[in-house]
Amino acid sequence: MPDERNRLVALLKRAQASDGSWGHPFETGISTDAYMIILLRSLEINDEQLIQSLVERIESRQENNGAWKLFYDEGDGNVSATVEAYYALLYSGYRRKSDPRLRAARRRILEMGGIENAHMFTKFMLALTGQYRWPPFFPLPLEFLLLPPSFPLHFFDISVYGRANLTPLLVLLDNKYSRKTSKSPNLSELLGMRGEGEDWREMRTDRGFLSYVKQSILGWPAHIRAAAKQRAIQYMLKHLETDGTFYSYFSATFLMIFALLSEGYSKDHPVIAQAIEGLKNFRCTIDGQTHIQYTTAHVWNTALASYALQEAGVPPTDDAIQKANHYLLSRQHYRYGDWAIHNPYSPPGGWGFSDINTINPDLDDTTASLRAIYRMASEEGAFRQAWDRGISWLFSMQNDDGGFAAFEKNVDRRLWRYLPIDGAEFLLSDPSTADLTGRTLEFLGTFARLTKDHPTVAYAVEWLMDHQEKNGSWYGRWGICYLYGTWAAITGMAAVGVPSTHSSMQKAIKWLLSIQNSDGGWGESCKSDSAKAYIPLRTSTAVHTAWALDALVAVFDQPIPEMEAALRFLQQSLNSKDWTVSYPTGQGMAGGFYIHYHSYRYVFPLLALSHYENKYGSFTSQKS
């Protein structure tokens, strides 16, 4: 398929920005659009052009039954997304309750159980804007921030994503802060059968450690609570990026702004003003409409694109690769972040996800960036130094269980999973995962030339084999879902020399081939993550098919018919414009946060095609 390969190369090159990066959108539904309207109206910032453009996008995503969904096959709608959209449209001032679309949305919300059935964080947003009661109790008290790292359980045992969101939230919970304006709508009609705030009782718990926390911490003097609040404020201010956002996350920055307001900061305070501008800079355009991204994905996009182009035969001397890799070189981290709490002896050397990320590196972006600069590292001193720093940091981040996590080391306390907090397993933990462990192994085998006999590699392989599902698949934490994890595990183990005849590999291959669709492709539903089991999409997507094909190429010495069927599907799907093109292939939190990476439809098919043709020769020539 040389024509398709060349076309994908050309498409990627045309999408490159002048600074060498790729800024494909990081699309996460309509929640961030809704929250941006609510933020601007709450602070009485009358950016009407932005608000109107967000109203148009939100409204365009409404289903015929009045609801909004997180993904195509979610069912009759998502109550949290529908509440958020309804609220934002009303608060914008450009839509009224009497509008047919909002009447339909209101009816659907009540059919789904009302606000009480919305996600916990949706209720927190409603509480801080005066639409819902704050809970009388929260499982983690503000004083928890004061516990030292020597304590059996402490603040830095929570994942970095959890810390970023919980820190401002704990301040808001303590202050029971709410902010209404003359334009605030009244959402009381969205309350279900139980009434406002009654469902918060479900958050109470008297089990184990939490009972101890309640007894020993909640009775501490007021000055201890004041010290904890100051610790929270200082933590936020010390973790601002240059654009003013808190960790470059929309949700964390949104909550931080309200937390600072609750502590007496004026809405015109420079920290708040810069944070708002930082969030505005997350805007992008998708099909002519404005979307506020949760963050930007420039480093991730650029590392993947540079690597894919080089695998497709574009030489490192090509201007596109030179610009991309110099951009990546400029984004390698030199600052210590929270990751150093659990890994104090390694100097910085990783890469982060977004364009302005300087303190929150992750393993996936680090291995992706190292793949991209691999060929230049053997020729240029600056890239060699970056390579050495990156490799050193990567090795230092292996968990004690042998696997690799996303952001930090050994941050997987099982207790968090039992807290009555929506999505606690995803919000508070950063465990070893099959996708991160597999992709790290693939890098170590293909680019660092390590084999399964190396101690680090052997331990990671052992972790993967111990965490394989009974059906032969692996769950991928950051993608959708079992296809993603299985692709990462197979390619990782193959790269370090685990033979395809190994029973673990055989089970995985058998499972992968058993779920291929009749059109030659693969497709998996976002429902898999909540179900904790593979749920077929019942149609194929180009990205899922590329992952599956790439896994098969990694283990077979010769092409098999299933590969050729997959290639034919990819050939047909590259021009597709149906809903499968925008189906989420990434996840942030099961049941609540899904990601459509706009770069994936180019990068992963190009990688799969290149790996196939580099190994077996041209598919077209074989068919002729």
Low-confidence residue ranges: none
Number of strands: 7
Radius of gyration: 24 Å
Strand content: under 5%
Instruction: Report the span from N to C terminus.
Output: 12 Å
Number of helices: 25
Strand order of the largest sheet: 1-7-6
Describe the main β-sheet briefly.
Answer: 3 strands, antiparallel
Secondary structure class reads mainly alpha
Approximate shape: globular
Query: What is the percent of helical residues?
Result: 40-55%
Give the mean pLDDT: 93
Describe the 3D structure.
- The protein has 624 residues and is mostly helical.
- It contains 25 helices and seven strands.
- It has helices at 2-15, 31-42, 48-60, 79-92, 100-111, 120-128, 160-175, 208-216, 222-238, 250-262, 270-280, 298-311, 319-330, 363-377, 381-396, 424-427, 434-446, 455-466, 482-495, 503-514, 527-531, 542-555, 561-573, 600-616, 619-623, and strands at 26-27, 283-286, 289-292, 522-524, 536-541, 586-589, 593-597.
- The strands form three sheets. A three-stranded antiparallel sheet has the order 1-7-6, with no helix packed on it. The chain has a two-stranded antiparallel ribbon with strand order 2-3. The chain has a two-stranded antiparallel ribbon with strand order 4-5.
